Amino acid sequence: ALAAIVSADANGLIVEFNPAAEKMFGHTRASVLGKAVGDVIVPERYRAAHTLSMARLHAGEPARIMGKRMELEALRADGSEFPVDMVLWGTGVGDAVHYTASLIDTSERREAALQLQRERERLRQSEKLTAMGSLLAGVAHELNNPLAIVMGGADLLAEKSADYPALK
């Protein structure tokens, strides 16, 4: 599978971690088998909610997130967080239930969306400056028309007053 596949038993312990998950999370399969999903790929600030959800599932309550696409933050082995799209489903294996998550790293998509947002903001700023320039050109034109009349009148007075030094 191209997506990371992580399966856990009813207690939340990892029972499967495919090669795509190894690449995405930076853990080897052997190092995570038998460990709690929450401790391996769930950021610390979400672990309490994850543990509570697992307890509800273990108690037999219906899962609200089963089969629904969710956007979450996940944790890499180096401690960095990254965005993922996840779909979770349950599978009966004998008398036991296993929960499997299919995860896709959406870092590139999120970065592209942020870049697009930045470009839109730059375009918006450029449009504002263009509009302001047009407005200022219009205002200057409107001021220059009456000013030209005043300047013309002043020039005429200056010419006519040339013969009258006191008036000048």
Which residues form runs of ≥5 with pLDDT under 50?
Answer: none
**Morphology call:** rod-shaped
Q: Percent range for helical residues?
A: 40-55%
Number of helices: 5
Average pLDDT: 88
Q: Could you give a short account of the major beta sheet? A: 5 strands, antiparallel
The main sheet orders its strands as 2-1-5-4-3
| Head-to-tail CA distance between termini | 95 Å
Please tally the β strands and state the result.
5
The H/E string reads: EEHHHHEEEH
Rounded Rg: 35 Å
> Which class of secondary structure composition applies to the elements?
alpha+beta
Q: Approximately what portion of the residues adopt beta-strand conformation?
A: 15-25%
Summary, kept brief:
This protein is of the alpha+beta class.
Notes on the protein architecture:
51% of the residues lie in helices and 23% in strands. The chain is an alpha+beta fold. A five-stranded antiparallel beta sheet has the order 2-1-5-4-3. A hairpin with a 5-residue loop joins strand 3 (70-75) and strand 4 (81-93). The longest helix is centred in the last third of the chain and has 54 residues, at 107-160. The protein is rod-shaped, with a radius of gyration of 35 Å.
